[in-house]
Structure formats: C-alpha cells, structure tokens
Amino acid sequence: MQLKPFLLLLAYAIVDVFAADDTKTTTTSKSDPCSFSTTIIEPTGIQELNTCATLKGEITISGNAIGPIDLPSVRELAGSLTIVNSPSVVSVSLNSLQNITGKFQIKNATQLNSIDVISLERVKDLQFISLPSLSNFNFNPSIKAVEKIVLSDTALYDLSGLTHFTEINYMNLNNNKNITEIEFPNLKTVTDNLILSFNHDDAKVKMDKLIWAANLTIQDVAKFSAVNLTAVNGTLGFSYNAIEELKLDKLESVGESLQIFANDDLDNLSLKKLSEIGGEFKMFNNTELDNMTSSFPELKRVRGALSITGDFKDLQMPKLDRVQGDFKMTSKNEDFSCKHFDDLKDRGRIEGHNYECTPGKKEKLGKQGDDDDDDDDDRDSGSKKTSSKKNGGNNVLVPMNFLTSVFAFLIANFV
Predict the structure, then answer these.
(1) What number of helices (H) and strands (E) belong to the chain?
(2) 311 and 290 in contact (C-beta within 8 Å)?
(3) Cβ neighbour number for residue 28 with a 10 Å cutoff
(4) How far, in Å, CA of 255 to CA of 272, rounded?
(5) End-to-end CA distance of the chain
(6) In this predicted structure, what is the pLDDT of residue 389?
(7) Which structural domain range is residue 313 located in?
(8) Is residue 263 a part of any domain in this protein?
(9) What residue spans carry the region label Disordered (predicted)?
(10) For residue 93, what are the contacts with CB-CB under 8 A and spacing of at least 6?
C-alpha cells in the first residue's frame, strides 16, 4: 500500500515527460505569436505561417503531405527557412518576402519545378540542392546582398538574378547540366570561395571585373575569362576543363597552391605577371600543352613543392630563383632541357630534400634496332636456308655431271 503514492508520482512524471516531448516541434514566444521555431509536415501549418508579416525563428517544412508552398503575406524572416525531403512539393512562392536574416535552403525536393522570390533583397545563405526538376527560378535581379550561394544538381538553364552583385563570400555552382553561360558582369571580390564545377560540358565562364579572390576552383568548362584577376590569396585550381587557352596575364600572386591538371585541350597557357606562389605548384595531364616558353616569364619564388609533368619540349622560368620545397619536373619530350633547373639545384636555390628533373629519353635505336635485327635475322635465316637448299642442289649436280662425262668418254673410246 505504501507504494501507491510513489507510483502516482511516477505516473505524473512520465506524463510530464511525454507532454514535454510533444511540444519540442514548436516553440512559441507567448508575447509574440509570430516568433517560433517549428517543423511543418501538414498543409495546415503552411496556412498558419501566412498570418504573420514577419516571422521569427527556424522554420522547417518536410514530408510527403506538402504540395505547393505559397506565403504571400510573409515579408521578412528573422531566422531560417528549410524545405527538405519533400518530394511532393512542386512550387515555392514567396513573392512578398524581402529579407531572410539566416538560411534559405531547399534540399531533396525531386518534383519541385519553380521558385518565385521576386522581392527578395537580402539573404545570408541561399542553398538549392538536389532539385533535379527545378527549371524555373524567378529571382530579384536587384538583390543587394548575398553571402553564400549553393546551386547543385538542378535543371536550371541560367542563373537568373544571381549574377549582378559586386562581392560574394561563397558560391558553389555544380552539376547543373543545363547551364551553358556563367557570367558575372559586376563581380570584383570573392572573400571565401568560388567553385564552378561540372555544369554543362560546354559552359562558358566570364568574370572580367574580378580582381581578387580568396579561393577559385574551375572545373569542366569550355571557356574561361578573368582578364583583370590580380591576386588569389588561397588556392587557384583548373582541372578537367575543355579550355584551349588560359590567360591570366594580370595575376601577380597565388597565396597558397596553384594546380593545373587534366585539361586535355589546353595548348596555350599565359601567366605573364605571376611572380610568387605561396604553396604548392602542380601541373600534370595537360596533354596538348607542349610549349611553355613564355608561360611564366616573371615567376621568381615557389614557397612549397613544385611538380610539373607532361610532354612539353620547352618550359622556361627565366627568373625563378627559389623553390622552398621538393622539385620534380618530368617531360616525355627528348628536346626538353633541365640545365636551368640543375643550375638552381647546384646553387642551393631548390631547398627541398628531393630533386628530380628528367627529360624524355631519346629513342634508342637499340630497341628498335633489336627488332630490326630480329627481322634481319629472319630474312637472313630465310635467305640462308634458301641458299643452303640451292647449294645443296649444286652439290648434287656437280658429281652427276662429272659421272655423265666419264660415262660418255668410256662409250666413245672403248665400245
């Protein structure tokens, strides 16, 4: 009987715990009914959002029960909006929304085909990821501020209003297979990272007002132009491109690594003002790049390792005076000379523990000659065999002629 009060208290505690769990999906401020964080899985939750002109909190919309999302009343979101794992969502309309202080993310919405945010002026973080049906994106071309943009795996044909800003913190455009033109007519500064990779195979990229970037990665484009790029503070990389020409003739320095590899059509590389690379310098698998006589006329120092391999017959760095890491330069071309780099090594200007400079080996007639010798042996052998047979025949014929003559002589004189 003494256990009864204890069991009652335990039951009340359990009820309180479950009640607390039930309220975890929505946290509402009692003083402000439009200030709450919630996860919406039913269409009725979307309707409730429309009662507020300004929403404050973290709003997540998810699940298979959500159809079109239309929030015509919401003008500002002091927080974030995430639409995730909602294959039933076909459209998102936020045409009155002007400001999002946090993140606006739509991810894994496979049937979503249109997004309308025509009034949006400011958003901190914009991410559209794994939206394979998204082909219509109506964005405010006069947007004033975006810090971060990620567009990945969409069906978009262009970047709508996402190209007119002068500065971006972070932008990653990848696997948007319909985008053939990427142009940033006003972009001057990238403060974190700009990544353009594996969009349309024939994508043409133009950012001729870009002066400075923290990091820049360009992959799988057909043309690239950044004629005013002066400095990259971090890493600069070009790989898997179909570009035939890469000219960055105003680029003076790369703060960390410079990587140029797997550009199969590249046959003209020009970095006429590049004087210093702050980290690693690596080039390989640029199969058509056979002449770099004037590619690096001002390069003086590489603060990391240098590794360049290819089929180049001429690569000159006349002002190179110091490499602070390992050095490897290998060409398959027999006309390439290591003299300048060997001299640097001898003078102690290449400071790494490992040094290798290897020109292509001239084709030894030995190997080809061996094959020819084998062929000659075969021919000689045949001729020798043939000759042997002929000689063998002659050896038989001589005694027969001799015997015939003797026999004729005997008949004439003694018969």
Answers:
(1) 4, 33
(2) yes
(3) 14
(4) 17
(5) 159
(6) 35
(7) 243-377
(8) yes
(9) 352-394
(10) 68, 69, 70, 71, 72, 116
* 123: its two tokens: 């958003």
**pTM score of the predicted model:** 0.80
- 53 and 158 share a domain? yes
pLDDT at 230 over 80: yes
Query: How far is residue 304's CA from residue 5's CA, in Å, rounded to a whole number?
Result: 75
CA diameter of the chain:
160
- What span, in angstroms and rounded, lies between the C-alpha atoms of 46 and 89? 12
Pairing of the two strands 114-117 and 281-284: unpaired
- Cβ-contact 37, 15 below 8 angstroms: no
Tokens of 374: 């084998």
Instruction: Based on the fold, state whether residues 156 and 248 are members of the same structural domain.
Output: no
Q: How many domains does the chain have?
A: 2
Q: What is the pLDDT of residue 16?
A: 44
In a domain, 398, yes or no: no
Structure tokens that stand for 294 in this block:
């004037």
123-132, 157-166, 181-190, 389-398: least confident range: 389-398
Relative to beta strand 91-93, strand 69-70 is parallel
The Cα 304–Cα 327 span in angstroms is 9
Instruction: Say how many residues make up the chain.
Output: 415
Residue 2 makes CB contacts below 8 A (sequence gap 6+) with none
DSSP letter at 398 equals H
